[in-house]
Design a protein that fits this description.
The protein is of the alpha/beta class. The protein has a domain at 4-32 and 77-211 and 284-391: Alpha/Beta hydrolase fold, catalytic domain (Rossmann fold), CATH 3.40.50. The chain contains 13 helices and twelve strands. The strands form two sheets. It has a ten-stranded mixed β-sheet with strand order 1-12-11-8-7-5-6-4-3-2, sandwiched between helices. Helix 3 crosses helix 12 and helix 4 (153-166) crosses helix 5. The two termini are 37 Å apart.
Length: 405
């Protein structure tokens, strides 16, 4: 089953539906959309000292077993919109795509680098039965426009605020995967009055150590190779390498198909260059250059769930254990058989874990005076090798960062 650690400014806001629905899914339900006031009007859940565990939540019937990463992702010329229509809104002159479905407390799902809202397709329908689910394509990703713009974590967090403002959603529980985890944490830091809960899934922005595949983006001149990634011979070699990694049961082999599916979904060199600019805003040759550790103490009082795959070779599970030790009161759930995409390896369990967390935790309430006191006191830095919150010693395999942007 895995481990369950104990608690220790907008312009032209025009919203339109996808003008070209998937002919293969014509007539499919587009999801219930009660309007922009639904999430804002939803009554907050009462504070609770105890609540359901994942075992108390029934498994959804249609989210069992691993998913095919290529089958769920949109590719130009092959429309796979799924059951929920992709919508568009223009903010700051740029067209942005998002999925909105369901009703109830608002749940914002933020995808990782190079990916799109498609990554959440295995769990959206089940979550939409209980929540207002909003899953955007970040600027430069998926079906959203890809201008020369700010692709920093802080810039993405601003974009989430602006999207929610246009949709008239005031407060959300934020779920972020990979890069999206860093964006989610940044959102909670920049807009604490709008964040009710925080869920980090294989999140970036913790320690320096990341996969060499990501560090390659910092190599000078690598941008000249971007046009080659779409060539059939290059793709063939990539798939051969991925197959060998799976045969030898390497950790990276666990995520190889996912990585290839993300790359295959990038339509052209422009899209690949956006991904490169995004990577370089947070990673250099030595690894990640930003971290949420220095401000993690500000998350005290914000219900936080950390989900990780034990076999994650992109961002090692040690990062999950580390952020768990420094975020007081956080919960840690480890998926034993998963790599970097636990919500794909076991969607049913992911839904159960997330629902149980949502139901047993009350939404955070921002207190300006308490925030001021926390800032004045600053973070408590344990001595190297000493135990953190809950008596847990930060893992030695994670390189700490001295600061962050």
């Amino acid at each position: 089953m895995g481990d369950t650690a104990p608690t220790v400014g907008t312009t032209d806001p025009t919203v339109v539906a996808d003008p070209d629905p998937d002919p293969g899914t014509a007539g499919a339900p587009s999801g219930t959309d009660p309007g922009p006031d639904a999430a804002a009007a939803a009554a907050p859940a009462p504070e609770a000292t105890a609540g359901p565990t994942p075992d108390d939540i029934p498994a959804p019937d249609d989210a069992a077993g691993p998913v095919d990463p290529a089958a769920i992702r949109y590719r130009p010329g092959v429309r796979r919109e799924g059951s929920f229509r992709v919508r568009y809104v223009t903010i700051h002159g740029y067209r942005r795509a998002y999925v909105k479905a369901g009703s109830g407390p608002a749940l914002l799902l933020i995808h990782g680098i190079g990916d799109s809202s498609d990554t959440w397709r295995p769990v959206v329908a089940q979550l939409a039965e209980h929540y207002t689910v909003i899953a955007p394509d970040l600027l430069g990703h998926g079906r959203s426009e890809k201008p020369k713009a700010d692709y920093s974590v802080a810039g993405f967090a601003n974009g989430m605020r602006d999207l929610l403002t246009v949709l008239e959603v005031d407060r959300v529980s934020v779920v972020g995967h990979s890069l999206g985890g860093g964006v989610a944490a940044q959102f909670a830091y920049q807009f604490p009055d709008r964040c009710e809960r925080l869920v980090l899934v294989g999140s970036g922005g913790v320690g320096r150590t990341v996969s060499p595949l990501l560090r390659v983006a910092a190599v000078p001149g690598v941008e000249t190779l971007m046009p080659l990634l779409g060539l059939p011979p290059v793709r063939a070699v990539s798939r051969l390498g991925a197959g060998l990694m799976r045969v030898f049961d390497t950790a990276l082999g666990r995520d190889a198909e996912e990585i290839l599916a993300v790359l295959d979904a990038l339509p052209d060199t422009e899209a690949r260059m956006v991904i490169l600019r995004t990577l370089r805003s947070s990673i250099d040759w030595h690894g990640q250059v930003i971290t949420m550790l220095d401000r993690a103490y500000l998350a005290e009082g914000v219900p936080t769930l950390i989900v990780w795959g034990r076999r994650d070779a992109i961002i090692p599970v040690g990062h999950g254990r580390l952020i768990h030790t420094v975020m007081a009161g956080s919960e840690l759930e480890i998926f034993d058989r998963a790599g970097h995409f636990p919500h794909h390896t076991d969607p049913a369990r992911f839904v159960r874990v997330l629902r149980a967390f949502m139901e047993r935790s009350g939404p955070a309430r921002f207190d300006q005076s308490r925030w001021r006191d926390q800032l004045r006191q600053g973070r408590r830095v344990p001595e190297r090798g000493s135990a953190g919150p809950g008596g847990v010693t930060p893992p030695s395999d994670v390189t700490h960062l001295p600061g962050a942007h």
